[in-house]
Amino acid sequence: MLGTLKDVDIKADENSLTINGKTVKCVSDRNPLNLPWADWGVDLIIESTGVFVTEEGASKHLQAGAKKVLITAPGKGGKIGTFVMGVNDNAYKHDDYNVVSNASCTTNCLAPFTKVLHEHFGIIKGTMTTTHSYTGDQRILDASHRDLRRARAAAINIVPTSTGAAKAVALVIPEMKGKLNGIAMRVPTPNVSVVDLVVQVEKKTFTEEVNRSLQEAAEGPMKGILEYSDLPLVSSDYRGRDASSIVDASLTMVMGGDMVKVIAWYDNEWGYSQRVVDLAELVAKHWPAA
Predict the structure, then answer these.
(1) Residues 10-48: pLDDT tens digits?
(2) Where is this site: Activates thiol group during catalysis (predicted)?
(3) Is 105 marked within a binding site?
(4) 19 within domain boundaries
(5) How far apart are CA 65 and CA 95, in angstroms?
(6) Active-site residue numbers?
(7) Range of 24's domain?
(8) Structural domains counted in the chain
(9) 44-97, pLDDT tens digit by residue?
(10) For residue 72, which of 49, 106, 91, 44 has the smallest C-alpha distance?
(11) Kindly report the CA angle at 90 between 96 and 204, in degrees rounded to 5?
(12) 152 marked as part of a ligand binding site
């Protein structure tokens, strides 16, 4: 999707990767309890398998000797702190959670501009649709799956399916609890997705005012997280973009003064990965001095 990694010298053997002269040890085991985190003095584990997303599952890394776990997916149950950079990262406290979640790529796109809209206009309720590139959870050919729609061939179908991304916004913006819901439409593209949010707001507004509030946030407190674009682009133009959320200002609509529609693009692979690194750095920044 993104091509080969350029301008990097990589060497590999059975037990390590050497990247630009820095050697990284490699180990593999299906059971996190068997991993040598204690022996290696590991502080933070980035849990990206998609398997150990509960507190119980992720905590196996803690039992193996790691001190913190960062899940690159929505956490499920238990005491897991969910943080979206640019939205609630300032609420992070080192001693509150041993397991944290970076939420989903879609929540990372949706939450920043939802926060802006709520702060400026007051969101009453709304619905979201993400037109999302197909993922590894779908089938390349018709095959078995617990979700009968995801069981269908991903590369030749538009696949309606569920998403918890809209409801999950309430984990990082508590005022949104019970106010947002949504669905996903999986489409035959390998990367870059787009969120379509429609909300009813308390304060009457108009298109230019909505766009102005989003642009000011993108150029100010949310710079690097939220971007603002008025160019007539398509999905492939956003491949490799670092931002979590790129508002497509030319598609913003306001109906009757209180119904607002905002469209935002996101590279659901690359952009999300940037936030994983940002959250890992945030955790490290708050680490108590030795």
Answers:
(1) 999 989 999 999 999 999 999 999 999 999 999 999 999
(2) 132
(3) yes
(4) yes
(5) 17
(6) 105
(7) 10-103+274-285
(8) 2
(9) 999 999 999 999 999 999 999 999 999 999 999 889 999 999 999 999 999 999
(10) 49
(11) 125
(12) no
